[in-house]
């Protein structure tokens, strides 16, 4: 501004003006621009940018308002909350929000029309806040004692001195002295050289005009020239422009003053002109080298362009000659070849159109020969040709729709033909023997054509259709067999609503009916399996499988059908899907057959009837044969029919067990516990069991009256053909004296074993029933004998040692038979022998109780007599006579019943008890081993006692030499 004022006052103080930098002079020349620049250093327009989205710039206010509404505003209900502020909070708007209109007013007032605004504070380490829970829970700080006395702030947490790292050395100023001394001289030399170049450059620019000061710092600047002279639209005809160029010239009234003013203006204008010329001269002098270089380069370029133009003319002339001599004829040959190719393409298209035109007659011919796959392939090929080769041909515009309708018609035709074929094949009449005499599958070629067509259409629902038809056929076959069986029956029978449950049929009639039904169902299943196998072969062929793949399914070349030769159109996943559905079809049909047969077995008539073992056996054979046939077809076991058979068999086994249990209870109640003679048939039975096991009895069942369940011992005794009965039963050369109830129990156990082998399906159930029967015999016999229940039930006067011995011997016979029964049932069902160990333990305990009972009886007799005994003549005394009489009677009662070893055990215990009781009596009588009269009496009594026992031979051999005369005095 000082330079402008100096120009106006015609001063020559230009040194100070040119001391300013060009930028400062230029800015100071325009007061308006200087004011705007001064403001812009500290202020920015509010709506041009966003504080919190620095990458966004806005060209107008509406864009900025829209941005604030979308990004920095939230709507809560019907109110608008401004979030344009630090941490998403506007300091000038209530937190509860305002209406839409008030929000626009708020944005215009505080964010759009804001004259100045401060930038948000930059984040620094002092802006960080401390988390109070983190400070309080710091495990490194421990418990702070003065927590509640501190003030919140930077000093809330004690500052910790962080020691310097031992890995980093300490850096001091002395470490840089060597570098500074080395670089300092170079830097000063460089700085001096730079300043000298700048001063020389400024001096040369100032020497351009004589009116300019010769000061080396003088710089010519265009800022002295007013801005109006630099505009392109300078028009002196405009009054305002004229007044600016010639300020005040029209206001002077005096001519002399006007001339002076004109001279001043002329000098100013000359000065401005000199400044511009100086600037032009500076620019020319600075760019002179480039100018002369450009002129030199232009001459060289012009020379090169003339040479290039000459070469282009020569090249064009050569191309014209080449075009006339070579290109025209060659191009004409190519055109003729292209035309011939076009004619051939048109001819091919016409032939293709003629072929497509014959598609419908060809389809009729293929459908007439049942070649559905070829017809579908022809339709697909034609559709592809129409969409690719003949697209846009007007005469074929309706043909695609016709082909689609034809394809739908073929699909319906295939479905109806398949249903018609399946119905006819499954409902073919059965032969008299219910076995197929001709081919299992009728019209195999027709089936292959139909299935191949369905596979070509991806219509896999034909498997479900065949399954439904097979189930309907099975239901009809069962109903037909029932009706035919009833029509041949002589009794008057009423059918139910379903026609499958018949009332008042006997078990044998039911089994006969089931046999016919199973044979018929097996025939139907053979047909289903044959059709299924053909479908699988067809599927394999449709997927591109070879003969080796077909043979891998278990099909021989002799039984394989002739398949249609066609390309593979099924994917591997589709083949697996169809094969899986065919396998499931066979399984479902077999399962349904079993369910229907199970309904027959478990019908109301079978529940009312009482089946015998032979009938259950026949039923089991039928079920096993039918199950094996179904399992051979589908490969999986079927459960419903076997479960129904098991229910019937378990009902028979339950009834059989209840009858035997009731019969055993009646026998035990009527048992008088006396020995009976053993029939010869029973001895043979035991001999067979001892030699070959229980399973050997099944061979002689038909000829042995014993195993029929009608055996009675009186009958055997009265039969003249049988040998006389024996008083003893020899079991592996060991004699047994038994009661009648145990013989019948053995008979029942043999029946259980035989029925377990005759009916393996109930072997486990019968094995558990055997355990129950043995426990019943054990508990009831214990109640009757040891518990003295036979006194009131059977009318016995007393329970003698003979009764006890007979019961013990009966239990021992059962214990001998028990392992053989266990082994027998274990061979039939290894999971049904869990309770035999407990039964064996109970029987051994029962035998010990019987022995203890005998001990108690003898001990009571001996104790009562010894209590009355006194060591005085006569010898032997009456008490010892009675004691020995009891021992002799005991031996007479049980000696022929119990084995010798058991007898010796009993008498050994009785002998020990006698010595203990005698010692007590001697102590009570105060008799000592002193050789006195009483000692002699005791010796005589004991001598008589031992002689009698030796006569009985009841004691074990090692106790015959018992020195009782000496050890009786060991108190």
Automatic annotation (TrEMBL):
GO terms for biological process: Golgi to vacuole transport; protein transport; retrograde transport, endosome to Golgi. PANTHER family: VACUOLAR PROTEIN SORTING 54, VACUOLAR PROTEIN SORTING-ASSOCIATED PROTEIN 54. It comes from Glossina brevipalpis. This is Vacuolar protein sorting-associated protein 54. Keywords: Coiled coil, Golgi apparatus, Protein transport, Transport. Residues 735-860 form the Vacuolar protein sorting-associated protein 54 C-terminal domain. Residues 267-419 form the Vacuolar protein sorting-associated protein 54 N-terminal domain. GO terms for cellular component: cytosol; GARP complex. Belongs to the VPS54 family. The keyword Transport applies. It comes from the Eukaryota. GO terms for molecular function: syntaxin binding. It is found in: Golgi apparatus, trans-Golgi network. Residues 1-23 are annotated as: Disordered. The keyword Protein transport applies.
